[in-house]
């Protein structure tokens, strides 16, 4: 294989462990919006199709600037969340719940676009009058790729990357993954690009297998890693690659030299008959 490079922060591991580490209809949403602002408050009013007589108040928390507030309301992250509420399996679909208010609490910009959006939604159960948990960390769709490298002597490895994950307080071994950075929904293209950027392996789009396509249609063919607090929906792809044993040895030697062979186990051999991937 030409152009195969492994940086110091890449590891080869057992596919079963790799999976362990991984952790529709279209709807047209029409909103009537009005706004008001003062030196002390920023608010918007949204009317949703499911509750036309109950406008939703959208307000900015203290410290959120007017530009961040406007960017948040206009962002695809916020609009997609509203659209999901109104979808066939959405929270507001059967009329038993109502959205009263949304508080925009934080905005993180990635260049000219919103990368992360934090807000709190007040959604009430009409029968009980109780609020349902409504703190949202919005980051949008993402992709992950399980790359299986198969050598000519029947050894199989999965490619993992080592990432510093501040929210966990740990350095984590995980599948190559990344966020969609546009509104086009190009999951396959994003997966290919992320792999090349993170680990230097060039994948062919036509050889990518969408594992999440086999999920029940009610899921939207996506995995939700943490739906209790985050809107992230993930597509997981499989990519098989034949590599000569000599390349494996070179890659492992490079990893051992870069990290120190005694500091971490860099790979595990998994006989193909024990693999979980079809």
UniProtKB/TrEMBL annotation:
<protein>
    <recommendedName>
        <fullName>Nudix hydrolase domain-containing protein</fullName>
    </recommendedName>
</protein>
<dbReference type="InterPro" id="IPR015797">
    <property type="entry name" value="NUDIX_hydrolase-like_dom_sf"/>
</dbReference>
<keyword id="KW-0378">Hydrolase</keyword>
<dbReference type="InterPro" id="IPR000086">
    <property type="entry name" value="NUDIX_hydrolase_dom"/>
</dbReference>
<dbReference type="Pfam" id="PF00293">
    <property type="entry name" value="NUDIX"/>
</dbReference>
<dbReference type="GO" id="GO:0016787">
    <property type="term" value="F:hydrolase activity"/>
</dbReference>
<feature type="domain" description="Nudix hydrolase">
    <location>
        <begin position="138"/>
        <end position="278"/>
    </location>
</feature>
């Amino acid at each position: 294989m030409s152009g195969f490079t492994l940086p110091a922060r890449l590891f080869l591991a057992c596919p079963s462990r790799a999976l362990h580490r991984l952790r529709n209809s279209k709807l047209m949403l029409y909103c009537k919006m009005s706004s008001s602002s003062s030196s002390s408050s920023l608010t918007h009013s949204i009317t949703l199709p499911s509750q036309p007589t109950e406008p939703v108040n959208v307000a900015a928390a203290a410290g959120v600037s007017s530009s961040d507030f406007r960017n948040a309301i206009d962002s695809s992250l916020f609009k997609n969340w509203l659209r999901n509420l109104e979808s066939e399996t959405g929270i507001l679909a059967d009329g038993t719940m109502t959205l009263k208010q949304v508080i925009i609490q934080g905005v993180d910009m990635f260049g000219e676009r919103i990368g992360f959006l934090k807000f709190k939604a007040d959604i009430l159960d009409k029968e009980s009058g109780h609020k349902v948990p409504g703190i949202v960390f919005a980051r949008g769709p993402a992709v992950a790729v399980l790359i299986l490298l198969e050598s000519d002597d029947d050894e199989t490895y999965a490619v993992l990357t080592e990432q510093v994950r501040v929210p966990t307080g740990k350095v984590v071994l995980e599948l190559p993954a990344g966020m969609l950075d546009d509104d086009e929904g190009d999951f396959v293209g994003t997966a290919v690009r992320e792999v090349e950027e993170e680990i230097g392996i060039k994948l062919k789009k036509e050889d990518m297998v969408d594992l999440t396509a086999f999920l029940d249609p009610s899921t939207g063919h996506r995995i939700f890693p943490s739906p209790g607090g985050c809107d992230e929906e993930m597509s997981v792809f499989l990519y098989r690659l034949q590599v000569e044993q000599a390349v494996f040895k070179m890659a492992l030697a490079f990893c051992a030299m870069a990290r120190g062979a005694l500091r971490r186990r860099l790979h595990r051999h998994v006989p193909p008959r024990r693999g979980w991937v079809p």
